[in-house]
Amino acid sequence: MVQTYRDGWPVNRCAPGEDIGNRTPYDRLFVVGDGAKGRGGIEVDGIALGVEKTD
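Above: the chain sequence. Below: its structure as tokens.
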């Protein structure tokens, strides 16, 4: 079974541990979402983990 949520995009855009990270070269601009979730998180939980890393 394969889950999708829009036009064939996979539920998890990046496999755990292959994310791009949350930092950008701009002050106070962060990447959050399923492609920047970090280890141990997927979907909504992974997004929340990414938001926590923006302190």
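The longest helix spans residues 43-52.
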